[in-house]
Specification:
The chain has 498 residues and is mainly β. The protein is 5% helix and 41% strand.
Length: 498
């Protein structure tokens, strides 16, 4: 569905500074779109936003405090998407035939991609695989689903078993081969990169159209689909949200209180996955119980039209667009002072994982240009300081497997001492962060979450370990040949505080 309408002339008395529980205007300074400026937030730097403002591509690096023109928008873009591993790489959809364009210099110059040059006009959806950002999928009204594994330079059709259009698209954050797409009036899924598609068993009401789809970034087995049913005069008859906790194999209808009408976008808070946001054309809603109930959050948000939805990686800032420009909502307070997040990164060249709670390391990996390390979207909590319930985590580093390198973490003194005696490893710190330790049977104290450790068994010529609270990720890694390590039958290594 498209957003239409004129620029609002009667501006609201908006708050001058951002706060919680209300929306504030963040620009661009002059909006000339018929509806809502397309925008994209840089995943690694949430204060950096690109937006189309009339005939110009605008950029802010301070969350909307100041905007600068990057380039003219001669292609009339109505969709922007930033590569999470390369902030200067931006994809766009635009022009009368909705072609795909790409910029590798932060929007200054743009190239028409080969997929759009006669092969696949009328692009309706475009998505980047978070775990392998050179892989993209596009949904076209003309040819269905297309796939690129080289950053959009070449494309192939991946429509085997796919009836009709594949739009919108959603890619599993941990596996570039797992993709969901809307086809006809249902949802289809591929687990082999588009080699074969299978329709999922969702009992939508008769005549329903799927309007939005979202995957939980923390637990990818949890997925959501929003639908709407219209009569012959395009009047809404019914709408709602379905959710699945097993990667789409079984579905239940979430509650649909009055006001939650046609959902155009869904966004899930990565820090609190039970908190979900839904964008209708006239309002934004929030659920704090995984879509069971919804509450409008519209204070100081201009209506009648809002479009697009983005939540930052900390879950603290929500953004949407209206005819009056971009708006920001402080969705949550900062994490509890008693805990710190431990962020997970992935380096595709080594097929290695890395975790850190160090703010300087996090800032460097996120903001110091391309390093090869990208966030997986997963994290867990550690204690902000040592206490009677925690143990310090030793962190080791090794370059003995050059050209690859690796880190190793353990909260167990015996493992720490043993690794100190290994000349292949160097102790970087005896207290990387403080964490709970499981009992001998692998159980964690009440309210603490198990952290599982998995070992790659030396695959690729160098050791690497992955630490996760996500059972689905644990099972996925075991299926790939990784070996569980830790205490108890589930191999628990640490216990994460809430």
């Amino acid at each position: 569905m498209a957003c239409v309408g004129g620029l609002a002339n009667a501006l609201l008395a908006l708050p001058a500074t951002a706060g919680t529980n209300f929306w504030t205007a963040i620009g661009p300074p002059g909006t000339h779109n018929l509806c809502c400026p397309p925008f994209a937030v840089v995943p690694s730097s949430p204060s950096t936003i690109y937006a189309v403002d009339g005939t110009a591509i605008m950029k802010t690096t301070d969350g909307g405090g100041h905007w600068a023109e990057v380039a003219e928008d001669s292609n009339k873009f109505d969709f922007l998407l930033v590569d999470p591993a390369s902030p200067a790489t931006i994809y766009a959809i635009g022009g009368p035939y909705r072609f795909i364009y790409k910029s590798i210099d932060g929007g200054v110059s743009w190239a028409l991609l080969a997929a759009s040059n006669g092969l696949s006009p009328l692009i309706e959806a475009l998505a980047i695989a978070p775990s392998l950002t050179t892989t993209l999928y596009a949904g076209s009204l003309g040819v269905g689903v297309l796939k690129s594994i080289d950053g959009g330079m070449s494309w192939v059709r991946v429509n085997n078993g796919l009836p009709g259009l594949g739009s919108p698209l959603a890619i599993d954050p941990t596996n570039a081969d797992v993709v969901y797409a809307v086809s006809g009036r249902g949802v289809v899924k591929t687990t082999n990169g588009g080699g074969q598609w299978r329709r999922l068993p969702i009992s939508f009401p008769a005549g329903a159209y799927v309007e939005a789809f979202a995957i939980d970034p923390t637990t990818p087995s949890n997925v959501y689909a929003a639908y709407a049913v219209f009569n012959d005069n395009d009047a809404l008859i019914q709408s709602g949200v379905f959710k699945s906790l097993d990667s789409g194999e079984t579905w239940v209808a979430a509650q649909n209180p009055g006001g939650l009408t046609v959902v155009s976008a869904l966004a899930i808070d990565p820090s609190t996955p039970g908190r979900i946001y839904a964008n209708t054309t006239t309002a934004v809603f929030m659920s704090t119980d995984a879509a069971a109930s919804w509450t409008p959050i519209n204070s100081y948000l201009p209506t009648p039209f809002v479009w697009g939805l983005s939540v930052d990686r900390t879950g603290s800032i929500l953004r949407t667009a209206s005819p009056a420009g971009l708006f920001e909502y402080r969705a949550a307070a900062s994490p509890p002072s008693g805990t710190v997040p431990v962020i997970e990164y992935f380096y595709a060249a080594f097929d290695h994982y890395f975790i850190t709670s160090n703010p300087d390391e996090i800032s460097g990996l996120d903001n110091d240009g391309p390093t090869g390390w990208v966030r997986t979207g997963l994290q867990f909590n550690a204690y902000a300081s040592a206490n009677e319930h925690s143990a310090p985590v030793c962190r080791f580093f090794s370059e003995s497997f050059a050209p690859q390198s690796s880190h190793f973490y353990t909260p167990f003194p015996t493992e720490c001492v043993g690794r100190i005696g290994d000349r292949a490893w160097t102790l970087e710190t005896a207290d990387a962060f403080d964490i709970g330790v499981p009992a001998a049977d692998g159980s964690c104290a009440e309210a603490l979450m198990p952290v599982y450790r998995l070992y790659n068994n030396g695959h690729g010529g160098a050791p690497n370990h992955r630490y996760t609270t996500n059972l689905a990720v644990r099972e996925q890694m075991i299926a790939q040949g990784w070996v569980p390590e830790g205490l108890g039958p589930n191999a628990v290594e640490m216990c994460s505080p809430p």
